[in-house]
Amino acid sequence: MSTTGNKSISEIGRHGLIRELTTFSTWRSDHVISGIGDDAAVIERDETTYTLISSETFIEGVEFDLSFMPFHQVGAKVVSAAVSDIYAMNGHPKAILINLGVPNRITVDMIQDLYKGIGMACSDYHCQLSGGDLTGSHNALVISVTVYGEVDKDRIIYNSGAREGDAICVSGDLGSALAGLKILLREKRHWEDSEDPVMQPDLTDWEYIVKRQLVPVARKDIISLFEEHAIRPTSMIDISQGLLHDLKRITNSSGKGAYLYQAALPIDLQTREAANEMEEDVDKYALYGGEDFELLFTAGEEEVTKLAEHSKNFAVIGKITDDAGQVEMQTGEGDVISFEK
Description:
Strand content: 15-25%
Radius of gyration: 21 Å
CATH architecture of the largest domain: Alpha-Beta Complex
Order of helices and strands: HEEEHEHEEEHHHEHEHHEHEEE
């Protein structure tokens, strides 16, 4: 029974609300191995394979802004975000369904451009566009994506397997998608304040971080490395809500804690330069910025050493501790910051 009373959603948070909603479904299927809580639902397909299912919803004005994001880039981004959940379970995407809620102001050409991006991304991830639904919408364009994937039973990785002493690793760099968004929003304000309706901002100096916001790439390459070299992390998640948020999902699910090293956070130079221009703390970009869609994973020393032999595109940023729920970070000066449980 719910104990939240008349609390607002903001008081209990996104995952608090999800926990509340799970109480309304009490029937359980023997075929559903894992439901709410991981990046994808896990369903038994046969003796050797699990089916993975995940969904994402994108609303114009919330998840994307058409004033600076072309339709083909929106299409590519929604696919990347969806398949990233499958990669986070160490699986491979196979099929995608797209549901659209379309307002009258959207033209056929716009929808065709949207699907050009969807089609290109599906080709990149070897994932077939297999159907969906189309309906109307009063104001905003709404895109809902359902992705189906597969993973061998002996290869699946949940977010609940972290062990004390495991290294905390992350692919790529952190905070660049947020930095790119801040640059785009700044240029949008300049355009709105100008008297030139066709003004084109010069984003040459910010090309990398803007691309990280507009056309993120799900880390198929990392999953392929794991498969090719028989590397198996103990837990994994994709960074969609921010490093700290998603790391806490791992520690809470695993009943462990985490100790991070500020100096080890991988941050691109353009991200640092953007934060300097905004007069903001770049570490906050790395810790709280979402939509990087990098893979955050934990692994033992042997697995990390093996991965390092074949890739330089990841960083060890901390270690798993036995202090359940506690996430701390050692600063460059040697102080220790404790984040709220």
